[in-house]
UniProtKB/TrEMBL annotation, chain B:
Entry keyword Signal: yes
Domain of life: Bacteria
UniProt signal peptide: 1-28
Lineage, top ranks: Bacteria, Pseudomonadati, Pseudomonadota, Gammaproteobacteria, Alteromonadales
Protein name, as recorded: MtrB/PioB family decaheme-associated outer membrane protein
Keywords from the UniProt entry: Signal
Protein source organism: Shewanella salipaludis
C-alpha cells in the first residue's frame, strides 16, 4: 500500500519534471530570440569617452529633467548626493556628468525624424553597460567601501550593480529604511523574503530589524556576508546570554546556532529547523528515553507517563538550559 | 590548542604564482568614468541656477489613532499595538544649511511599545553624531496559567498546593494565576563618525540593549517536570571603534569591539510542586545565563595593484571571559558538598585569519583564491564536578568539557566571461574542521561549484548555480567520559559523512519598465551516507514567483507565490542496536499574496492600496517501525493578513489616511493543544499555549507637512 502510493508519487514527480522542463524551455526560446545581436556599433562608454562636457553643467540637464519628465531627478537635491557644499558629493564635482558622463549630443535640442537621442551612461538593470563599469563610477567616490568590503564580495563577483539595490534620485533610498529592506533584498533572495512571513521569525516585517542587522551586503570577512566573523558571533550581538563560555557546553550550540535554528523564519517555534523531539533525536540515541520512537501512542493515556517526551516543550521540558548551563549540576542541561 | 597554520601546498603555489604576476602589474588604475575632455570643463561657469535651493527646514508630523477588537496580545508582537485604542505619533524633522550642516530626527510609533527614533547632527563629508532608540515588544502567549509567584527571587507555590507525585492532581485551576509571557527589548545607540580627510575615517558606536519581561522555562525533577515563569532582566553593552587609512593602492584599518552581558538575575530558586523523591528535595535552583565579556581586535589590510586585482589580509583576535559565581550543587541541604572553585574562570580565545587574492588577467579571465583559518581555543580549565541530579542524588564525578574548534578553509574560483553579459564561475572549496572531546575529531568537506549569470538582453536575465560537496569524517571514538553512553551507530549530523547537492535557478524577465517577473527555484539534498542512526537525509526544494505590472502611474499590481517543501528522514533504535524505527518529517509551506495600488483618483487626491498575504503551513510526521506505520496528527498553521488603505491629499500640507487590517493566525499542534494543567501525569504545564488570534484593526491618521 505504502509502496504503491510511493510509486504513484514517483510517477507524478517525473510528470512534474517534464512539465517543468517544458516551462523552462519556453522562456529560453524567447530569450534566444531576444538575444539576437542588437546593432550597436559604438558602445555608450566609448561614445562618452570622447564626448564634450556641457557648458552649463546641471543647468543643461535640469532644463528637461524636471519633476514632470519621464526621469524626474530633483529629489536628489534633498540627499547627500545633491549637496554642493560637500566636496565628496557629485554635485560639487562634475554635477550630473560626474556619474552620467559628458552630455555630448544628448542635449541636442532638435532631433531629426526617426533620430534617437544620444544615450547617456545610465544604471538601468541589464542595459549594455557592464555592471563593473557602472559600479566603478560609484566606487570612484566610495573608494574605501569598495576596497575594504565590496571588492571580492559575493555580490561584487555575482554581478550585482550598486543601482540594483540603491536609488539615489529619491528623497530616501528605500534600502536604507529597514522596513523596506526585505522587499529590496527579496527581489533576488525570494525564499528568504518569504520565510519572513512565517509563524516564527525575526521582526523583519515591522522594520525593527532589517536584513543589514545580520548581513553586510557590501561585503564582509565572513561567509554569507555576515556582519560578524561567524554565525554565532552574529547571533550573540543580540543574544549574548547564549555566548558563555558555560561550565557545561552543548557542543552544537557553541559551534553553530544554525545547526538547529533557521534565522530567516520557520514554521516551528523558536525558528527551529525541525519539530522537537525529532530535531534532538537527529543526534541523540543513547539508551533510555532519547532513543524511543515518539509515535502516536505517546499521545494516549496508557503511555501518558511518557507524554512529556513528546508534548509541550518536548525534550526541553526537562533539558531547558539547552544552550549551555553554568550550574555545577547542569551536566544534563536541566538546571 | 595553538595549531600551526597549515596552508594546503596547492594554495601556496597558486598564491606565489599570482603574487609574482602582481608584482609585474602596473599601479592601480583610477576608478570611475572620466571623459577625455574633462580637463576642458570650466567648473566656475557651472552655476547650477536651476538646482533647487535646499530647504533649511523640512518637517512632518502624523497623528495616528488606532482601534482594535478584543484579542490583541499576540497582534502586539513586534507592533506594540496592545490596547484596544491607541494614540501615537510619527514624524520627521530635517534641517540642512548651505554650508553642509544638517540635523535630522525621525520617529515612529511614539506612544507605543515599538517606538523607533533616530537623530543625527553633522556636516556632510565631515562628521556625524547620531543617537538612536529602538523598542521591540516580543509578545509570546497571553493566556497561560501558573501556580508560581516570584517572591524575592524564589518561585513559590500557593500555601494549599496539593503536593503529589502525579501532576494530574494539580487540576484545581483556582490555584493558578494568569500569566502572559513576553519581553520588551530596548536599545539605545550613540554613534560618532569622522570622514573629513579623504584618507582617514573613524567610526565608533556604543549601544545598550535592555531586555525585561517573563519567559517560559522549565525544570526537571527526574521523572517529572514543571514549567516556570522566568523573569528576565538582562543588559548587553557594546562599544566599538574602527579607523581606516586609505592611500591610493593601500587600505589599512584597525577595529576594536567590546561587549558585556549582565544578567540581573543570575539564578532562580523554585519550589518543587511534586512529592519529593528524596528527603530535602523540596526546592531547586536554576543557574541563569552568566555575566560574560567579549573582546575583539581586527586588523585589516589591502593592497590593490590593478583595478580588479588585490590582496587582502584580515586578522581577528577575540577573547571571551566568564567568571559568574557558581550556585551550590543543589538546593537539597542533605546533599550539599563543597565546590572545587567558586566560579568557572571561563576563558576562550578566538582567532581568525583570512588571506584573499583576486587577480584579473583581462576582461574575460580572473581568479579568486581565499584561505581562512578560524580557531576557538577554549582555555577554560576542565573541572571535575559531582553533579546532583534534580536535587535527588549525587551522580558520578564528571569533567566539564571545554570544546575547541578549528576550521581551515580554502577556495579557488575561476571566472570566465565568454562575451558581454555572460559570466561563468567555476570553483573548488575545501573545509577541514577539528574538534576536541567529541566522538568525531575531524571532518573534511570538499567539492565543486559553478554558477552562470547571463544577461541576454535588458529583458532577460538568468542566474544558475550548483554545488556538490562531499564530507568525510574521521572514525568515531568511544567517549568514556560523557556519563551517558551513546549508541555507537549514531552519527551526529553536523559531523557525519555527507554528500550535499544543491542547485538554484533565477530568471528575471523585464519586458518593459511596466512589467517584471521573477521565477526562482532551489533544490538541496543532504545525504548522510554512512549514518545508520540519526539524520539520514534532508531535502529541500522551493519555487518562487514574483509578478508585477505597473502600466501607468495610477495603477500597479503585484503577486507572489512560494511553495517550499522540507523533508527529513531520521533513524532511531530503542534497544541500543541497529535501526528499529524511522521518522519522516515533512514541512510544506505555501505563501501567496497580492498587492494592488490605485492612485490619482478623485481629482488626483485619493490613493487606494489593497494588500493580502497568506502563509499556509503543514508539518507531517510519520513513524515506521516493526509494528507498522503510524502518523502523528498533522500540525497546521494558517497566517492571513489583509489590508485596505486609503490616502487622501486634503491640501498641499495635509494628508488623511484610513486603513483597515485583518490579521489571523490559526494553528493546530498536538504538542500544545489540550495540554492543560493536570492533563499529563508528569508535566506541570502552563496550560494550552496556543498562539491563535484573530484581529481587526482600524487606523486613522492625519499627516501635516510643515
Amino acid at each position: 500500500m505504502v509502496k504503491s502510493s510511493y510509486n504513484r508519487l514517483h510517477s507524478f514527480r517525473y510528470l512534474r519534471l517534464a512539465l517543468l522542463s517544458c516551462c523552462l524551455q519556453l522562456p529560453l526560446v524567447a530569450m534566444a530570440d531576444a538575444a539576437e545581436p542588437q546593432a550597436s556599433p559604438v558602445s555608450t562608454l566609448e561614445l562618452k569617452q570622447a564626448a564634450d562636457y556641457s557648458k552649463d553643467g546641471a543647468d543643461t540637464c535640469l532644463g528637461c529633467h524636471d519633476e514632470d519628465s519621464a526621469f524626474p531627478v530633483l529629489s536628489i537635491f534633498k540627499t547627500k548626493h545633491g549637496s554642493r557644499t560637500d566636496p565628496h558629493s557629485p554635485l560639487a564635482q562634475y554635477q550630473c556628468e560626474s556619474c552620467h558622463g559628458p552630455v555630448g549630443e544628448h542635449g541636442k535640442k532638435r532631433l531629426r525624424k526617426g533620430e534617437n537621442r544620444e544615450a547617456m551612461i545610465t544604471f538601468t538593470r541589464g542595459n549594455e553597460i557592464p555592471v563593473a563599469e557602472k559600479n566603478a563610477i560609484c566606487s570612484s567616490c566610495h573608494e574605501q567601501l569598495d576596497k575594504r568590503h565590496w571588492a571580492g564580495s559575493s555580490h561584487q563577483t555575482g554581478e550585482v550593480a550598486c543601482s540594483d539595490c540603491h536609488k539615489i534620485h529619491v528623497k530616501e533610498d528605500p534600502i536604507r529604511l529597514k522596513q523596506l529592506q526585505v522587499q529590496v533584498c527579496g527581489s533576488c533572495h525570494q525564499a528568504e523574503k518569504l520565510a519572513s512571513k512565517r509563524f516564527s521569525t525575526h521582526p523583519l516585517e515591522y522594520g525593527q530589524m532589517g536584513c543589514t542587522d545580520c548581513h553586510s551586503p557590501h561585503g564582509s570577512n565572513a561567509d554569507k556576508l555576515l556582519v560578524a566573523d561567524t554565525i554565532n558571533d552574529t547571533c550573540f550581538g543580540c543574544h549574548a546570554e547564549k555566548r558563555g563560555p558555560f561550565a557545561w557546553e552543548h557542543e552544537p550550540a557553541s559551534e553553530n546556532c544554525a545547526l538547529c535554528h533557521n534565522p530567516h523564519g520557520s514554521n516551528q517555534p523558536a525558528m527551529l529547523t525541525q519539530k522537537v523531539p525529532f530535531l534532538c533525536q537527529n543526534c541523540h540515541s543513547s539508551a533510555g528515553h532519547p532513543s524511543l520512537a515518539q509515535d502516536s501512542s505517546r499521545l494516549s493515556t496508557p503511555y501518558a507517563s511518557s507524554s512529556a517526551l513528546l508534548l509541550g516543550r518536548s525534550c526541553t521540558n526537562c533539558h531547558s538550559s539547552i544552550h549551555g548551563s553554568n550550574h555545577p549540576s547542569g551536566s544534563r542541561f536541566q538546571r | 590548542m595553538n595549531k600551526i597554520i597549515c596552508i594546503p601546498k596547492i594554495t601556496v603555489l597558486i598564491m606565489s604564482a599570482l603574487m609574482l604576476t602582481c608584482l609585474s602589474q602596473a599601479r592601480a588604475q583610477g576608478l570611475g568614468f572620466e571623459g577625455d575632455k574633462r580637463a576642458e570643463v570650466k567648473l566656475e561657469d557651472w552655476q547650477c541656477e536651476y538646482c533647487p535651493k535646499p530647504e533649511v527646514w523640512d518637517m512632518s508630523l502624523a497623528v495616528h489613532f488606532g482601534v482594535t477588537d478584543e484579542e490583541v496580545y499576540r497582534f502586539a508582537n513586534y507592533t506594540g499595538l496592545d490596547r484596544q485604542s491607541q494614540l501615537f505619533f510619527s514624524g520627521d524633522i530635517k534641517m540642512q544649511t548651505e554650508d553642509g550642516h544638517y540635523w535630522s530626527t525621525h520617529f515612529r510609533n511614539l506612544g507605543l511599545d515599538s517606538l523607533a527614533l533616530d537623530s543625527a547632527y553633522g556636516k556632510q563629508g565631515s562628521y556625524r553624531l547620531g543617537v538612536d532608540y529602538l523598542a521591540i515588544p516580543v509578545r509570546k502567549y497571553a493566556h497561560l496559567l501558573t501556580p508560581y509567584s516570584n517572591k524575592g527571587g524564589m518561585l513559590q507555590l500557593p500555601g494549599d498546593w496539593p503536593t503529589s507525585a502525579d501532576a494530574r492532581d494539580f487540576a484545581d485551576l483556582s490555584l493558578y494565576r494568569p500569566l502572559a509571557t513576553g519581553t520588551d527589548w530596548k536599545r539605545l545607540g550613540l554613534e560618532l563618525s569622522l570622514n573629513e580627510d579623504d584618507d582617514f575615517s573613524f567610526d565608533s558606536r556604543y549601544q545598550r540593549w535592555h531586555k525585561t519581561g517573563t519567559l517560559e522555562y522549565s525544570a526537571a525533577q527526574l521523572l517529572n517536570a514543571s514549567y516556570l515563569p522566568l523573569p528576565v532582566d538582562q543588559t548587553i553593552q557594546d562599544l566599538s571603534a574602527s579607523m581606516s587609512y586609505n592611500r591610493e593602492s593601500w587600505l589599512l584599518s584597525l577595529s576594536a569591539a567590546f561587549s558585556r552581558f549582565d544578567n540581573e538575575l543570575d539564578s532562580l530558586r523554585f519550589a518543587n510542586p511534586y512529592e519529593p523523591l528524596a528527603a530535602g528535595a523540596d526546592s531547586g535552583q536554576l543557574a541563569l545565563a552568566p555575566d560574560n565579556n567579549a573582546l575583539k581586535l581586527t586588523l585589516h589590510g589591502q593592497y590593490r595593484y590593478a583595478r580588479d586585482s588585490f590582496v587582502k589580509l584580515n586578522y581577528v583576535f577575540g577573547k571571551l571571559t566568564q567568571d559568574q559565581a557558581f550556585v551550590p550543587y543543589t538546593d537539597n541541604a542533605n546533599l550539599l558538598t563543597a565546590l572545587p572553585q567558586t566560579d568557572l574562570e571561563g576563558k576562550v580565545n578566538t582567532s581568525d585569519l583570512t588571506a584573499q587574492l583576486n587577480h584579473r588577467w583581462d576582461r574575460a579571465w580572473a581568479v579568486r583564491i581565499k584561505y581562512r583559518y578560524r580557531e576557538r581555543d577554549n582555555k577554560t580549565a576542565p573541572l571535575l564536578l559531582r553533579p546532583v541530579i534534580s536535587d535527588l542524588y549525587v551522580a558520578d564525578a564528571l569533567m566539564t568539557l571545554p570544546y575547541d574548534y578549528s576550521t581551515r578553509s580554502a577556495s579557488a574560483t575561476l571566472e570566465y566571461r565568454p562575451m558581454a553579459g555572460h559570466l561563468l564561475n567555476l570553483g573548488y572549496k575545501n573545509e577541514e574542521k577539528e574538534r576536541n572531546l567529541q566522538a568525531v575529531h575531524n571532518t573534511n568537506e570538499a567539492g565543486f561549484n559553478a554558477n552562470y549569470a547571463a544577461t541576454f538582453s535588458p529583458e532577460w536575465m538568468l542566474k544558475l548555480s550548483g554545488e556538490r560537496l562531499n564530507r568525510d569524517s574521521s572514525t568515531p571514538e568511544r567517549l568514556d567520559f560523557l556519563g551517558v553512553e551513546e549508541n555507537p551507530l549514531m552519527r551526529r549530523f553536523n559531523v557525519a559523512d555527507r554528500q550535499q547537492d544543491s542547485a538554484r535557478l533565477q530568471l528575471f524577465y523585464t519586458p518593459s519598465e511596466q512589467v517584471s517577473a521573477t521565477v526562482s527555484g532551489q533544490y538541496s539534498h543532504q545525504d548522510y551516507v554512512a549514518s545508520e542512526l540519526g539524520l539520514k537525509d534532508n531535502k529541500l526544494h522551493n519555487a518562487n514567483l514574483d509578478l508585477s505590472w505597473h502600466p501607468n502611474e495610477t495603477f500597479d499590481i503585484s503577486l507572489f507565490l512560494q511553495q517550499e517543501d522540507i523533508k527529513t528522514r531520521l533513524a532511531g533504535s530503542d534497544d541500543f542496536s541497529g535501526p528499529r524505527w524511522q521518522a519522516r518529517n515533512q514541512d510544506k509551506i505555501t505563501s501567496y499574496g497580492i498587492s494592488l495600488a490605485l492612485r490619482k483618483l478623485l481629482d488626483d487626491k485619493l490613493s487606494l492600496f489593497i494588500n493580502f498575504d497568506r502563509a499556509d503551513a503543514h508539518t507531517y510526521i510519520r513513524l515506521d517501525q516493526a509494528g507498522g506505520s503510524d502518523a502523528l496528527p498533522t500540525i497546521a498553521s494558517l497566517w492571513s493578513h489583509g489590508e485596505l488603505k486609503m490616502l487622501y491629499q486634503y491640501s498641499t500640507h495635509t494628508e488623511l489616511s484610513f486603513s483597515y487590517q485583518y490579521q489571523a493566525f490559526d494553528s493546530a499542534d498536538f504538542a500544545i493543544d489540550g495540554v492543560t494543567p493536570g492533563s499529563l501525569p508528569n508535566l506541570l504545564t502552563f496550560g494550552t499555549s496556543s498562539n491563535n488570534y484573530n484581529v481587526s484593526y482600524g487606523l486613522v491618521s492625519v499627516g501635516y507637512k510643515f
